[in-house]
Amino acid sequence: MRLVKTTTVRPGTRLGKAIYNDNGKVLVNKGVSLEERILKRLNELNITYIYIDDKQTEGIEFKDPISPQLRQEAVTTIKTTLKSVIDEPISSKSFVLEKSVKQYQNIIRNIISELDSNSELMSILSDVCIHDNYIFTHSLNVTLYSLAVGMELNLKPAQLETVGLGSILHDIGKVTVPKEILLKPGRLTDQEFDVIKTHTTEGFDILRNSYSVPLLVAHCAFQHHERLDGSGYPRGIKGQEIHDFAKLIAVSDVFDAVTSNRVYRSAMLPHEGLELLYAGVERQYELNVVKAFHKAVAIYPVGITVELNDGRKGVVVKQNAALSDRPIVRILEENGEQVEPYELNLEEKLSFVIIGCDTTFKEHQNK
Ligand SMILES: [Fe+2]
Known about the structure:
The protein is of the alpha+beta class. Helices cover 40% and strands 15% of the residues. It is built from twelve helices and eleven strands. A hairpin with a 5-residue loop joins strand 3 and strand 4. Helix 4 crosses helix 5. The two termini are 13 Å apart. The site of fe (ii) ion has 4 residues, from loops.
């Protein structure tokens, strides 16, 4: 299968990976012929990229970082808790959350153990899913990224659990933000943005009043929008005033936000998201966190078409765990000419460099 931009797909192409919604329900099945009507709908839903099936990329499969069962359990837990917290008056929100803390801790432990036994780099393509409600999937994705980065930084098990809990609950304060503002497509007014900003302080209050939530977890929610140079919110604290875990969650949060499709803009590809993080190093994000992120996360996900510095073009087959930007590539073209496919391991062939990605659908792909 191959990752292509939805707008470029020709009708009649077969879908290479099922499209799910947040509840794990299949919306379009693998193998389905993408008729014009379906393509139109996918574009309306703002699905920026999809996987298609083609002969040249047979056998290339994208593996999710955690099992579908665990993903669904996590998303359902987040959804159920947030919904029950939303309905409570402000004074009882912490009490209601209290009941789910054990469940969250269990999920975090299960995620850590699944990630531990999986040597693959972290690769989430959230833009190929349909999100009924972005906040649930976003909380889980941020958790997966933060844990992968935490492992890369050699955090101790107890620290990883705190980072995990801080990540999965980082946006809980959004339950106090009115839906019209939270889900508003397009630009927010200054007043609306001021309301959004309160999710940090509200989240802090909900979490610090829950007895079984460690105080540090509450601070993760409080500080995840603070930036090194003091340009963040809610307090504009700087550098060492920001806790290391909040700095880590900030990076995962931004990366997932820019690589996910939202109503008002298309998703960036992982290498573009990473460039954005590097552009903010020192001013916004800590260098060692961005470097760890670079190492732990797949920069060129399986199925993406990459161009090499000598004119070769191919599709990523597999990641190299130690070198996130040097995967194994199935070469399909040399200087614009199709060739008999062969594999090139960029970990061994150091003179080759990926210079770009191509996600436009080509006519010959479907033959
Ligand atoms: Fe946030």
